[in-house]
Amino acid sequence: xxxxxxxxxxxxxxxxxxxxxxxxxxxxxxxxxxxxxxxxxxxxxxxxxxxxxxxxxxxxxxxxxxxxxxxxxxxxxxxxxxxxxxxxxxxxxxxxxxxxxxxxxxxxxxxxxxxxxxxxxxxxxxxxxxxxxxxxxxxxxxxxxxxxxxxxxxxxxxxxxx
Length: 162
Hints:
This protein is mainly β. The protein has helices at residues 81-85, 144-151; strands at 4-7, 10-14, 18-28, 31-40, 64-68, 74-76, 90-101, 106-116, 123-130, 135-143. It contains two helices and ten strands; from the N terminus they run ββββββαββββα.
């Protein structure tokens, strides 16, 4: 299915050494997809180097995303509470690419975030923090009514019966 276009490309947050942007925000009947890209110049400010990730392997600190819904609830990236107890909503990373190094020790990250179910009308705030690179509480405001209107424009890749 091709999603209905909501926004993008648009900057979510920027500081002297980092920029995070939404390449595109697409809406589907079942949820919202946000393709994000983050670029950092210079080495991470994490003391002691990269911390172990949830699998116990040493990984580089990544930007972290969340969504504040119109009713005030927060949905955090990879918090599966809503999935486990069926209360929804959920934000999951469904795609990842990353690279680091080079002369300036920079980092480049691309993530695809999937939010389900489709948010209700009202203000939606996509937030991002990448404290290891000095970015905290960057935000992009979306309109839930526009998201729902875009979802009605989503189309199947192939017509029925094809």
